[in-house]
Amino acid sequence: MQLLQEPGDGFDVKKYVSKLTSLEEDARRLSRSLVGFLSSSQSTRLIVAYSGHGYLPASCMFWHTVTMDEEKSILLLDASSTALYILAYRDPTPIVAYAPAPSASFLNMLQVARVMGHPYAAFTGKPSGGREAEVLEGYGLLYTASQGELDSSLAMSIAVYHALAELYGGRLAKRGARILGHSREGFTPVVEGLIEAYGDAVSWMLSHRSLTVTSGRLLESSSLYLVEALRRRGVDARYEHPEMLRGPGDALVAGTGVEEYYLRELKHRFSSTGIVVRELVVNTDPVEANIYLAILANYIASTHLDH
User: Which residues lie across from 236 on neighbouring strands?
Assistant: First the structure.
């Protein structure tokens, strides 16, 4: 293995804290729009659609909602599947859609939604201007302040967390109140501790020429986000579902504290196939875990931009 640059080389952690502060401020702005859209809907159904790294905020919204709201019927689908298989066969249903870099399939889905009478709130990255801005102008989109796909995706995901923390603050007794308290505190105050706590794991990941990342379904979206961050640092990273992973080789297994037995099962299974496993366990409430892992990944990707 060839040791690549350490995460702190040429990059001040405090500089990243400043960056995350700006992203979280933008996320709080977006969260107010999301709260308004969801509060105005009396439907017990919701479609969450995405394109590209919009999977991260869409997944955060799915898991947060199914955890806190047992009465909500929610679908999580990519934009193409939503347009082709869902919208024409449903009564008007609210849609929340995420695409840090809006694709043709994403815009087509919004066109179909408009024709079929489905109300939507669609979040995308800030357009670069010119022709792109002209094309997007008629869709009623909500823009992040960032143009970068990974930054926009993270801002959207934090916005989802803050919005749903507010909406579900009274649910599940103390859990809803605790999540709301965490939301009001924000993620920025804990990021330095997060980077320090997982510094060894980050160095281990960056020491590889190639690396496989795997996880359970909960952390699938943030694990895919991590793979993209590692690729931007020169690591030939790929994501595999645990059921498809074969050795030999090294693998990072991402999980949460509540997945202790599942992670133990995976380690036992992988060891028999010659896979060397490194665990990355996010010990937070599961509805927060994707965001913490994504912040860590965004830090890794940001160090690349600083070099």
Answer: 210
- Tell me whether residue 287 is exposed, middle or buried, using C-beta atoms within 10 angstroms of its C-beta: 0 to 12, 13 to 18, 19 or more: buried
In 148-198, where does DSSP find H-type helix? 149-167, 174-185, 191-197
Dmax (CA) of the chain: 56
Q: Dihedral, CA atoms, 275, 280, 286, 290, nearest 10 degrees?
A: -100
**CA 158-159-161 angle, 5° bins:** 65
Give me the pLDDT at residue 9, please: 47
Dump strand ranges (E) for 87-209: 95-99, 120-124, 142-143
120-124 vs 95-99, strand pairing mode: parallel
148 Ramachandran zone, left/alpha/beta (phi>0; psi -120 to 50): beta
Q: Is the pTM of this model over 0.85?
A: yes
Instruction: Provide the CATH number for the domain around residue 301.
Output: 3.40.50.10490
- The answer to whether residues 228 and 150 touch, using CB atoms and an 8 Å cutoff, is yes
* Pair (182, 195) in one structural domain: no
